[in-house]
Amino acid sequence: MKAAVHAAPIPADALERLERHHARARQLARRTGQPTLAWVAHALERTAPPDVFARTPDQPRWLWSRPADGFELLGVGIAWRAVTRGPRRFDDAGAAWKRLVEQSVGDAPAESVAFGGFSFAPQGPYAEEWAGFPPGEVAVPRLAVVTEGGRIRIVLAAAALPDEDGSTELGATLSLAGRLFESVPRAGWGRGQATITAEHPAAPAWKRAVADSAGAVREGILRKVVLARRVELRLVSCDPARMLAHLADAHPHCTVFAVEREGAVFCGATPERLVRVGGGWVEAMALAGSAPRGRNPDEDAALAQTLVASAKERDEHAAVVEWLREALGGVSEEISVATAPDVLQTTDVQHLHTGLRGRLRSRAGILEVAGRLHPTPAVAGVPAEAALAWIRSCEPLDRGWYAGAVGWTNGKGEGEFAVAIRSALVRDRTAFVFAGCGIVAGSDQDREYEESQIKMRPMLRALGVR
Q1: What percent of the chain has pLDDT over 90?
Q2: 450 labelled catalytic
């Protein structure tokens, strides 16, 4: 996410096209009594995307980036937004998005962009630090920058409201488009500095919960359950743009994401895809069973071999694969699953990984499919209802959007969502860094605590913990 040295303004013909589309959208909105979206997409000739996080500090912002794939989405402002709640929040978001697309006036549906975010629990965040992050939402940014395959396009969107003359919404989008290419000096803070001030729950309490959970698995109450914890940081300084750039550089094979709301940023570098839909296919990922990275190639290989051979880790992984195969069966056919897991390596952790792929047989879009898969056993447990009840009874923290789902979609219902792990919530001078561990019969409380510490390292480094 590097700012361009020579920024070209958005071409006048793209802005004029948006104005024409918006005039038609106003007519539709008055006739139907429903909000109508106008939008345009235009290719840009430039060497790098504009630095959204530097130029628009007063606006809601999004980032979705796969550095190794050369794919990045940046969004700023809100042209339209649907907030959903409860167990059907994914389906309700998908239905609202479909209605909007059907009512929109613009270019090809595949060119449109909407971002989505969902909390871990259907009742949604309740703690004060999660203010601004609802149980579910799908939102269209006023301005999105899409980088794909070395090409960059910009997508502008403005809503037409039934009871509004159109000038306010259109003017806000056009103003934002002009500001994006202004010259803005960079802050000189660097990545930042931070110190750990607290952990919740405290280590002894969390270890007792791990021991109790492992006992519940041995007794047959559960097959697996995932317990989360967090540490609290006091930030001396933090520049979100540089922090996200660090995550992208340090974790190129992960998905780097950020969602900013009301002065807070929820961000991370997650290795785990929840689902991808495109070209009539649906893809998911089982990522469960973990080991640390080694200090040298030989130690690294030995740890990977131990991971693959571990009955405890294989059982934890198998529970996720079985659950995903069954869940995907509801929306797809010709499901292919690898016969054995491989090892996916990130900077600090290596995981057992199995990919799943099937041909989508329904008209469901990615939001509806994501709702079938969330929460997977990789972040909740098996059986699902029993695991969620166990988490509610013994996990004294609000996960909020941690271990929820973040991603994007287009007007064709395609897109990708990731599991929001290896993440942190940053608000003012405080940050909360989260991690979770899958607990099975053979789990050891000290080893699980150490594993959770390792999983926090990417965000701790990015926030400046020395």
Answers
A1: 71
A2: no
